[in-house]
Design goal:
The chain is of the alpha/beta class and 339 residues long. Helix content is 38%, strand content 17%. It has helices at 54-69, 89-93, 122-129, 134-158, 177-188, 222-231, 253-257, 276-290, 296-311, 316-333, and strands at 9-20, 26-34, 41-46, 79-85, 195-203, 211-215, 235-236, 265-271. The radius of gyration is 19 Å and the shape is globular.
């Protein structure tokens, strides 16, 4: 069907993960190029940077392919589509947000030849994020919120840390599998210097079913202007304080920023589920389970349903909202007047 639409896969790369899933299955990241290899403009649609969020992301990617084969979407001339499926395949298989090393892939893109970041505010929240007693944890977090304010609290908690692999938002101390894959995709697909619109699919933050387009480019750059040209006032920027997301260390975005032309941008498409308090509780509880002494399959069983309910809710209206917003975003990119 893709071939009939002139979208035969021109290039397909499989990046095998060294570990297995919970049922002994092999794991891999797939990257596929649809359209002309010489296209000047490229849309990149990625899923499962945070593993458990990959179920919604994978559904979106499948839906977009379905729309292309049914002529509900059509790529404009001189434009290709690259799909990066399951960037963090281990996390997706095991229903974890992090990878097999406890690394939050979306905090892993820093320069490891330099001293590791030491966010001062993180030390204020570290004990809270490893506190097993929920009552004491909630009381301590509420006190910190009063002390730091909402923006300061969000940056301290969600911004990234590099010293505690058993706690959430750990950026690691070396390159992750997913970072190596990203760097390989950039090189092997010859993406540097092209005009790129990267949409990285995420879930779990923001109002129920709402899809926020988050731009982490520096303020007043050509890439911010390009994002605004494409999506107008729907673009939110943590650096401007108008996003549900906080400013963070080590984002995947930063690897793509380095190779982008002025007619390019990287956007996170984040679909809200429950509030940030519920997100933090889900992740802290899940990390505490995995810090326990039982084997991996037992840990997986204990955390599976909570992770899936937060990051891919079993709610038909939520799922319809996610697919419709994704179609809107892709329809805009296929309109012919973005690049």
């Amino acid at each position: 069907e893709l071939e009939e639409q002139g979208l035969a896969p021109e290039y397909h790369e499989i990046f095998k993960h060294p570990q297995q899933g919970p049922y002994g299955e092999s794991l891999a990241t797939d990257a596929i190029w649809l359209g002309s290899l010489s296209a000047e403009n490229v849309i990149v649609l990625g899923s499962a940077t945070h593993g458990a969020e990959g179920y919604a992301g994978s559904a979106i990617q499948s839906f977009i392919l379905h729309c292309l084969t049914r002529n509900k979407l059509r790529l404009p001339p001189n434009c290709a589509l690259v799909l990066v499926h399951a960037l963090n395949p281990w996390g997706m298989a095991w229903h974890r947000r992090c990878d097999e090393q406890g690394i939050d892939v979306n905090r892993n893109f820093i320069d490891f030849s330099q001293p590791l970041p030491q966010p001062v505010a993180y030390e204020l929240v570290r004990e809270c994020l490893t506190e097993p007693d929920e009552v004491r944890r909630e009381k301590a977090l509420a006190s910190l919120l009063d002390q730091l304010g909402q923006q300061g609290f969000d940056e301290a908690v969600f911004g990234g840390q590099y010293h505690d692999p058993l706690a959430p938002f750990y950026g690691g101390q070396q390159k992750s599998f997913s970072r190596e894959v990203t760097e390989s995709v950039l090189k092997q697909f010859a993406l540097a210097g092209r005009n790129l619109m990267v949409i990285d699919l995420h879930t779990g933050l923001g109002p129920w079913g709402y899809g926020e387009l988050i731009c982490d480019h520096p303020i007043d750059t050509p890439q911010e202007a390009f994002a605004m040209k494409a999506f107008g006032e729907s673009v939110a920027m943590p650096a401007r304080g108008n996003s549900f997301s906080a400013v963070k260390e080590g984002l995947l975005d930063y690897a793509w920023h380095q190779v982008m032309s002025e007619r390019s941008c990287f956007l996170t498409l984040e679909f809200g589920t429950y509030d940030s308090r519920a997100l933090l509780k889900t992740l802290v509880d899940e990390h505490l389970v995995w810090a326990g002494d039982s084997d991996a399959k037992v840990k997986h069983g204990e955390s599976y349903h909570r992770m899936m309910q937060h990051f891919c809710p079993n709610d038909i209206y939520w799922r319809q909202s996610v697919l419709f917003k994704s179609w809107q975003v892709m329809d805009r990119l296929c309109s012919g007047d973005v690049f």
